[in-house]
Here is the input.
Amino acid sequence: MTLFTSSLVFLAFFGVATAVSPINLENCVSGSYFVENFIKYECYQEDNVKGYKIIGCQPSNDLTGTTLIQWETFDEKWFKYHCVIDGLNAQYSVKELGCSHNGQVYRHNQEWTSQDGSTAYACQFGKVVKKGCLVGTLLVPLYSVRYVDGEAFYCSQGTEVKSFGNLKGCTTQEGDIIPFEGRAKNGNMLESCAFSFNRDGTVEFKWTQVGCIYSKEVITVNAIQKIGDDYVHCVLNGTNGYISKLMTRDEVEKWLTATKQQWSNIVSGNEGRGTTIKREVPTMAPETTTTTSTTTTTTPVPTTTTTTTTMAPTTTTTTTPMTPTTSPTTTTIPPTTTTSTTTTTTTPAPKTTVKTPVKKCVDLAEDCEKMRIYCHSNQKNAEFLKDAIEKSSVTQKDKSRMLEFIENML
Here is the structure.
C-alpha cells in the first residue's frame, strides 16, 4: 500500500515554517478520530481501502475543545481561529486580534482614554469600540445616563457627552421626580422615565410604558403571565397603551402557536414579590401541534468532542492531509510533494446526535437563580441586545440608530 503525503505549512502570524505530519495508517481504527497539527481527522475503512479524512480544525490540538468546520471562525481571548477545507487540503490560521487607533496598537480587551480625556475606548476582537464618555473621572457608559453632582449626562455615539441641564428626570402626576431610567407606577401601568432630543438640541422627558399591573403582579408588555387561575396578557390597546387582558387556556395555546413560543414562556406570579419563576407543564392533546426547539441534526464532529476553553496556539497552520491509496504491499513516504489521483470523500462521519435545545431563562428556575439572571427584565434584555448590536457588522450609523431606539424604549 502506497501512501502519498504533502507538506505541512505554517502560515503563522509571526513567521513561516514547514513540517511533515507523521501519521501511521496501521494505528488508524475505523470510526476513530485523531488530531495532528491542529487538524482533526476520522479514520475509515471501505472494502480494501483504509484511510482518513478531514473533519475540521482543532484549536486545542487534541480531541477536547471546539472543532471548527469549513469556513468557520472562532474568537478566544485575543486570537481569531479560521478553518478552510478545500477538498483534500485544510488550512488553519490563527490571527492576533489587535486594534490600531491614532497610531497606537492595543490588544484584545485593552482599554484606553482619548487624548482629550472625554472618551473611553476598548479593543474588542480587532475592533475599536466606544465604552463610554468621561465626565471628570466618572465613566458614563455608552447609551446610558449617569448623574454627576445632581446633573444628568447622556453618552451617545458622538464625540460629546450631552448634559440635561436643569432637567433632573420625569415628573409624576403627584409632582415627584423620577430619575432617568427609573420606573414608577401610573394606575395600572408601569412606566419608565425616558427622554428625547429635539431638533434644537433641547431635551425633554417622556414616560414609556414597560408593563401592566394586575393585582400585585407586573406583567411585561406583550407577555402572558399566569396569576392564580387566570392567564393575563399585557396587550396593546390601539393607541391607548397596553392593558391587562384575561385569556382562556385555548387562547393562550393559539397565541403560543402563532408566535412560535412554548409553555415555558408563561410564568407564574408570586404575590407581587417577583422572586419565583415556575414552569407549567400542561397536558397536551394528541391532535394539538406545538412548536418545540428540540431538533435532530447530523454533525461532523464525534460525540466525544466537548466545548471546553483551551489555550490559544501562537501559530497559524496550513495542513494538507495524507491521502491513502490501496496496495497489498508496504507503506512508503516519498520525500517530495505528490498529487494523489485517489478521490477521498470528505463527508462527515455518519454519526447522529440530538442537539440540546437552547434553554431560555424561563425554562429552569434553578438555573436562573444560580446564574443570578433576573428573568423577564427589560433592562437585562436591552443590555443583551445592545451587546449583540455592538458586535454586529452593520454600519455605525445604523448601529447608533438601533441602540438609541432600544434606549428610548426602556
